[in-house]
Each structure stands twice: as C-alpha cells, then as structure tokens.
Amino acid sequence: MADADLNSTAWRVPPSRYLETRPLEFALPAVPVSRYVIMADGCRLAVDVWLPQGATGPVPAILIHTPYYRRFAMKLGGEGERCPNAAKFRDALVPRGYALVVVDIRGTGASFGTRDSFRSPREREDAREIADWIVAQPWSDGRIGATGISYPGAASDFLASTGHPAVKAIVPLFAVWDTWSDHYYPGGVFLNKLALIYDELMVAMDHDRRDLLSKVSYFSNPDLAGPMPVDEDPDGALLAEAVAGHRANFHMPDFITDLAFREQALPYDPGFSSADISPYSVCKSIPKDVAIYAVSGWMDGVGYANAAIARYLTMQGNPTHLLLGPWDHGARCNVSPWRDGVDPQFALIGELLRFFDEYLMDRRTGLRDESPVHFFSMHGEQWQEAPSWPPVPEATRLHFAAGALQAAPVNGGEVAHATDFSFSSGTGTRYERIAAIDSRDYYTDWQGRQAQLPAYDAEPFETDMELTGNVIADLTLASSEPDASIICYLSEVEADGTVRYVTEGLLRALHRKETRHPPEYQSPWPFRTYHRDDASPLTPGVAERMRVVLLPTSWIFKAGSKLRFSLAGTDADHIKQIPHGRPPVLTLHLGASALDLPLRPFQE
C-alpha cells in the first residue's frame, strides 16, 4: 500500500489534486542571482535568489536558511542537482509565482563568519536582517514565508520569532521544538553516536573536505565541487577566505556534552543554555497572525514527531496545522512495513504550496475548511483527519502481570531483569536517518533482537484496533544502581508469530521527576524540566514510579494479533552506558505498573 492522498477521504481537496490543478505560470531561471548580504556586524552571508521569470509585479518570498550549502559548484562538464536541499521547493514554488531565497548561514557554505553553536542565536538576528533585505528589493511584495527540512525548518521558527512584520507563514518540516529533548537527549538519554556523525558531516561541509563529503549518501555525486561562490566572486577568492574562517567552527561532541542538563548554562557563558538553541524559548515572540504548519513522520528520529505535536499545541493562538505521515526524517522513505515502494507518494510539496497560497498569497484554497490535523495509520494504510490532537483522548489501561498485560491489576509481585550492555536495536532503526545515513528498510531484524528482551504480551485483539498517539508506560521500578536508562519497546505479534517494531520510549531514571507544563511547551504527555536541580539519583533497591513516554505513532493492530511490551536498559549502537560499566538490574513491580494506550476500534 502507498501513502498517496489522491483517493483519501481525509481531505476535501487532496494535496496531490491541488498540486496538479495549480498552474505553472512562470519560467524557472537556469541560475539564481547570487550575492553577499552584509550583516550589521560586517559578516557577509551568501544568498541565492530564484525569481519567477515573466512575473510583471512584485512577488512574495520563501526563505530557506541552511547550513547545508545553498548551492554546490559543479566540476566542468559535471551533471547532477546543484541544490539538493532546496530543489524541490525551487521547482514547485518559483514557477507558481514565489521568489525563493536560500541563504548559507554564517560559518557555512560561501558565507563568512564562524558557528559558535548549533542553531546559534546569532543566526536568528541574521534572519531578521535578511528579512529586512528581502522587503527592500524591488521584486518583493513585502510578504515572507519560510520553510526547510530539519535545521532550516527550525530556522523558520526563529525567523518568525523576530516579530518581523513581513513574515506571515512558516512550515517547519521535520524540525525540533526543543533541541535538547527532541534531538540529542530524548528522555534525558544522550545519543552519543549522533553527535559524532553530525560533527563528521559538518567538518566535511564547513571545511570543504570533498573527500569526506563524498562518503555521505546525500552528497555522493562525484561531480559536486564544494560550495558555489557568489556572482561577485568569479575566481573563488572570497569563498576560499570564508572557508578558511570556518575551521574555527564549534565541534558538536564538545559543545553538546557541555549541555548535559536542559537549560544548563555553558560553563564559560552563564547567559547561554540549550534554551537559546530551541524554538520553544522564543515562541512567545511569534506574532499571532503567523500561520504555522508542523510536519513530521512516525519514524522521524527520536523526538521530531513529539516536536511537531508540541509546536502545534503550543501555538494554538495562531492559525495552525499538523501533518504526521509514515515517514522517516525528511520524508525520504515511506517506513510502513506494508508500503508498496520506498519512495513516498504523498504530495507533501502540494500541501506546502497550498498552505503558502492560502496564507501568503491570499488565494482561496479551501485549506481553512479542512481539518487542522491529518495523520496516516500504518497497517491500515490510510490517512485520517481530526479536529485536534490527540485524536484518541482517553487511554486504555493494561496492567502488568508475570509475562503478560491484562485488564485487571495483579496484587503484588515483582520481576528482576538484568541489563545486557551489548543489546542493540540494530543499524536499521529510526536513529540512522537523523545522522544523514541513507536508511531504506527499518527494523527488518526486529524479531530476533526483541527476543533478547523480557516480554509482556496482551491477549490477542478480537477486532482491528487503532493505536494513535503516545503510549505511556507507568512503571514502578527499582534499580540495583543509582541511575539507569529505561527503554520501553512496543511490538505487534501477528497471528502467525511475526513480530514487528511499533515504537519506543526512553527515560534516564535520574530525570524521572515531573512538573507542570510551561506555556512554551504544551503536550499530551508528562513534562520534565531535565534541570540539574530536578535530577535525583535512585536509591539502589528502592522502587520508584517513573512514567516513560513512548514516541507517537498511528498503528493498526489486526484482529488475532497481540501487543507486546519489552524492556531494556541500553541500546549499544545509539546511547552511552548508564552507569558506566555497571549494568543495572531493573526490578519491575507488577502490581504497581501499567501501560496507558490510546486505543480505539479501527474504522476503515
């Protein structure tokens, strides 16, 4: 089955039909206008502007602010796409009357300056100045939108938060809301391999190390020849000067481990913490007339879908939309085990175009008449609509028993599970794509891997049941050590015995304390500060309650299949040991532990 929307009843006008019927009115230029724009501190940023040829008046602009090259140079006679990060937006938007402005953030590509952090606050101020520059151009009609996948997606939040009056609509695609908990420390657990691989990617790009960059699947075309100089730099002398300055850029493993607790200040800068690199911290500055479309996928890293949901719920005072599909990071793959092809068939660019047409061009597209929430249910292989999130407001509670999950609680009982520090969920997981690894198949070896873990099975379902939202594992656990990683997995065991990965959740026991949601982070799951002051070691052998939030999904359990819960204390290929060299024994108190599941009968 496919994720195509054309035959879906979830939209009055499916995105693919909107894209098909929206005419291509203008020509796409062969090359953009490219120049340096000078910031207030003197830093020169490289900017490409793609203008619709044939447009007779000013047009709105879409801004993409990226660290991944606005455009590549090409070897003489070389072939391939020079703008792998912007091409889909360029090809869809420019011929339909939008200017596309793509900027190398400071310290990257052909831009000057250095990167002092991941998503530096300096970039936010640069975005404000770029917006000023855009509206001053003769081709600008004074309206700006912003989008991009991952880093550029979050950059659109930061642009909107400047309060610039020209910014009217943003589409943060597969983008964090809280960099700390959505990206590098999900549940307070550090993703150590991700930090290393990201640093290797950025050294390859920022230092113009083409020998290293060619090993990254996204940039493996041997004809790519580094960042493209701007028009005023025909011999590349300025580019060489800019790249030389990039060697002073920060290194992610060093930087992110200095932020070991959420909102903890850097040791050398008491005014800088993880809040400064996270959109939630500036969301109060986004004007209420800015329309926002939050987009993610069910296998989008280890927190990006949570980010889209939190963004949608937090920004309810704005015109907001939410889209969650059967995708990995960037929607490069359809991740449903029942897909009929790897490549997504959903017209995501059509939905983005309709959104900008509605809120930036003031076209009457019917978008405001659609439900604000759309999501894809895997195994049912269909799109659904909803008036709000979560679509299943009431949870079904199943209680733990010896090796089982059941409707009635048991009276007491406990089971000890020793952590095996060699256990791994593998290398075909939700973790690889966010590290720029070209994953195509997900959890194909899950049957054997989960067999290494303790399992608790529910009774087979009598009818097809839909699980949509975040499962919460409400556990009472004791640990033999003062800290532990608690990893909870959910699987479907089909009637023939096939075991399929559904979702997972992580929590560092040190961060079990919960508190009320702050205004800038609204979600349907328990909130934690992850602050140092709220972190508390366990007393070995003493059981405590800790609620582990599993990543959201929409999954149909077929009649005759059953739900399986598995527990682990590590994932060796993705996280660091907690504690170092001391694998904890986790003792689950059955009578005090349960799963809260957003379940309902599935309606085809």
Q: Estimate the strand proportion.
A: 25-35%
Report how far the terminal alpha carbons are from each other: 14 Å
Q: Major sheet, described briefly?
A: 10 strands, mixed
CATH hierarchy class name of the largest domain: Alpha Beta
- Domains, number: 2
Q: How many individual helices?
A: 12
Across the major sheet, the strand order is: 1-2-5-3-6-7-9-10-11-12
What's the pLDDT, averaged over the residues?
A: 97
Report the strand count: 26
* CATH T-level topology of the largest domain: Rossmann fold
Overall, the morphology is globular
**Cα-atom Rg, whole angstroms?**
24 Å
Q: Percent helix among the residues?
A: 10-25%
Report low-confidence residues grouped into runs of 5 or more.
none
Annotated CATH architecture of the largest domain? 3-Layer(aba) Sandwich
Structural class: alpha+beta
In short:
The chain is α+β, with helices and mostly antiparallel strands. It is built from 12 helices and 26 strands.
Your description of this structure?
The structure is a single chain. The chain has two domains: 26-300 and 316-323, Rossmann fold (3-Layer(aba) Sandwich), CATH 3.40.50; 396-601, Galactose-binding domain-like (Jelly Rolls, Sandwich). The radius of gyration is 24 Å and the shape is globular. It has helices at residues 15-21, 87-93, 121-135, 151-161, 179-184, 192-206, 210-213, 237-246, 252-257, 304-314, 348-359, 446-450, and strands at 33-38, 44-50, 59-66, 72-74, 99-104, 140-149, 167-173, 224-227, 291-299, 320-328, 373-377, 382-386, 396-401, 404-406, 414-418, 455-457, 465-469, 472-479, 485-493, 499-508, 544-549, 553-557, 562-568, 585-589, 594-597, 599-601. The chain is α+β, with helices and mostly antiparallel strands.
